[in-house]
Write a structure and sequence with these properties.
303 residues; two-stranded antiparallel ribbon; rSAM; metal-binding; metal ion binding
């Protein structure tokens, strides 16, 4: 693999709530290692841990609950301000089971409303102030399940304060037609990676470092110099997994220690590793209930 020879960009890779706090994100850990392999600087920021520290009795329940994506609703005011229905009463009236779920964790509707109106907007502001985002050329967000709205909330603030910083989104929530639509609706998102980012993201970084838009790279959705949104399809699945580097989880464990999260249930006791991608069974007989692996069903494994 040829490495970039243009000036290195500095990249931040961010994991926002409501990603589970008990383990590091293999997504940003692996991508950071890949980015560094190609000569760019990369830092990871597991900001989900900061919220886990603020909500020690509630965070795990909010992460694991499989109801109506309440985690996305909770960050609505932080992301959209007055455009969101600020009091939240309509949501809780429509989905009373979300209040019942909170009650099982010793919380009530008032707690959820206070989170939405006050605590989470303040949390996002603290995230925006707590890191010198302007020191980065690119800030990327990984998004799976209930991470979209929290990521959008922080991304909007970063772009407002540092317009030159390029905002990138990737992850399962950007798969297929979802990625281009997020790029279309949220103009502060400069680039979306659709599919596996291992190769596409590095190719885009090289292009940006060379003063190009990066449009036309498979898996990249971005605007050209004229502001036109260009979608180049999905990134081809990586076929050879053995050459991929070891994910870098140092920042996760440093943050766990700094936030004194070691007493949190299961935090830091699991280290994700990757032995395969796709689904060997689904490649032959796709399970009707499964909504995963839509663009990368083909099974690949490490030796």
């Amino acid at each position: 693999m040829s490495r970039q020879t243009t000036p290195a960009l500095r990249v931040a890779l961010v994991c926002m709530p409501f990603c589970a706090a008990d383990r590091p994100s293999i997504q940003i850990g692996l991508l950071a290692a890949i980015v560094r392999e190609h000569g760019f600087e990369a830092d990871t920021h597991h900001l989900n841990l900061d919220l886990a520290a603020l909500l020690p009795d509630a965070y795990d329940g909010l992460c694991s609950h499989t109801g109506h994506m309440t985690g996305e609703w909770l960050f609505g005011v932080a992301a959209f301000g007055e455009d969101a229905e600020a009091d939240g009463s309509a949501y809780l009236e429509q989905f009373p089971e979300e209040v019942a779920n909170a009650a099982r964790g010793g919380k009530d509707a008032e707690f959820l409303l206070r989170l939405r109106r006050e605590l989470l907007p303040a949390f996002v502001e603290a995230c925006a102030e707590g890191v010198d985002w302007g020191a980065y050329d690119v800030v990327g967000f990984t998004s799976t399940f209930q991470q979209n709205v929290a990521s959008l909330a922080l991304a909007r603030r970063i772009k407002t304060r540092f317009p030159a910083v390029r905002i990138v989104f990737g992850g399962a929530n950007m798969e297929d037609e979802m990625g281009p639509e997020y790029a279309r609706v949220f103009e502060f998102v400069d680039c979306v990676v659709v599919g596996e980012a291992d190769r596409a993201f590095v190719s885009w970084l090289r292009a940006v470092a060379a003063g190009e838009s990066g449009c036309g790279i498979a898996g990249i959705v971005c605007r050209d110099h004229a502001g036109q949104l260009i979608c180049a399809g999905q990134a081809p699945p990586v076929q050879l997994l053995d050459p991929l580097p070891t994910p870098d989880y140092h920042e996760y464990f440093e943050r766990v220690g700094r936030l004194q999260l070691t007493g949190h249930e299961r935090v830091g006791r699991t280290v994700p590793f990757e032995s395969s991608r796709g689904c060997w069974w689904g490649e032959k007989h796709h399970c009707t209930f499964c909504g995963l692996n839509g663009l990368g069903m083909g099974f690949r494994s490490k030796s």
